[in-house]
Amino acid sequence: MTPPPLLEVEDLRVEYLTATGRVRVVDDVSFTVRRGEIVGLAGESGSGKTTIALAILRLLKAPAAITGGRVLFEGRDLLGLGEAELRRVRGRKISLVTQSAMSALNPVITIGEQLVDAIEEHEGVSRRRGLERARRLLELVGLDGARVASYPHELSGGMRQRVVIAMALALEPPLIVMDEPTTALDVVVQRELLGEIARLRDQRGFSILFITHDLSLMLELCTRIGVLYAGRLAEAAPARQLAAAPRHPYTRGLLGCFPELHGAATRLVGIGGTPPDPRHPPPGCRFHPRCGHSLPACHVSAPPRTVVGPDHEVACHLLP
Ligand SMILES: Nc1ncnc2c1ncn2[C@@H]1O[C@H](COP(=O)(O)OP(=O)(O)O)[C@@H](O)[C@H]1O
Ligand code: SF4
Ligand SMILES: [Mg+2]
User: Fold this and answer.
1) Whose CA is nearest to atom 12 of ligand 1?
2) Is residue 22 domain-resident?
3) What is the pLDDT of residues 149-175, one digit of tens each?
4) Which of 55, 208, 229, 319 lies in disulfide reach of 306, CB 3.0 to 4.6 Å?
């Protein structure tokens, strides 16, 4: 029997409210993350990935607003929670690792103290117990526990990002949202860190929503993947299925640009043209100006989601 999903995002819609009107940057996006699973969200820059991550944690700031949908975590809709309840969810239930977090570490405070602060914010532990926990957390992410005494500038980029992951793990949340967690690092360090993330997940059993523009990285790490295009899900499928038999022209284009699926990381921009300006999206299928297969219907109506196999959905008029 399939266990109930940990996270269910249903028809999520996010709009930026500007002086000239509403700009819809996330449009009826639905996906689930089950316990212990690593689910990927891929998409070019501007496709709405970070907006979705922030919407799940209810961290979006005006002028962005969630204008539709539900975000169910352990069956509870996070969109209905007040600020006090949300504080209990963040960190303890869902934590966030971002690309920029490693540069946001405080340069004048030791790593250990920053970890203790993160723990203390949620749990009233003593300084000494907190520091012991900090040491263990660093060891968990493959760093020497003695690094509690180091300052951020004494660590490499890869080590700093490990510290950020240690912080995200501090309260043992069942779900970690990772938004481009390795993008700022060089390819070798990226791979090491991904190995570490996979190992930690195997060991601790938490779930990950893994967000990146790099589909090749994602194919190695994730169980299931959603491909976003201009704020909409073009295709969602088990990773193996997506690699072996992609159905959406956009996904096919993305995969076609990889020399080999497990080769060196390749940027997710291998298709002619650029994504649309979200203020003036093309009518119908938003991908139609870049699609080599478009039909008359593609210019006028948005393609519905079609189920083409287990956990496999595609939004394209080519499908029956
Ligand atoms: N403060 C803002 N006001 C208006 N539009 C924004 C704002 N922040 C982001 N956007 C737009 O939202 C879209 C999605 O952005 P984002 O979620 O950051 O994409 P990604 O993470 O996939 O690169 C982009 O088109 C971006 O220009
Ligand atoms: S709906 Fe039409 S334009 Fe969009 S991807 Fe499918 S064939 Fe191409
Ligand atoms: Mg982003």
Assistant:
1) 25
2) no
3) 999 999 999 999 999 999 999 989 999
4) 319
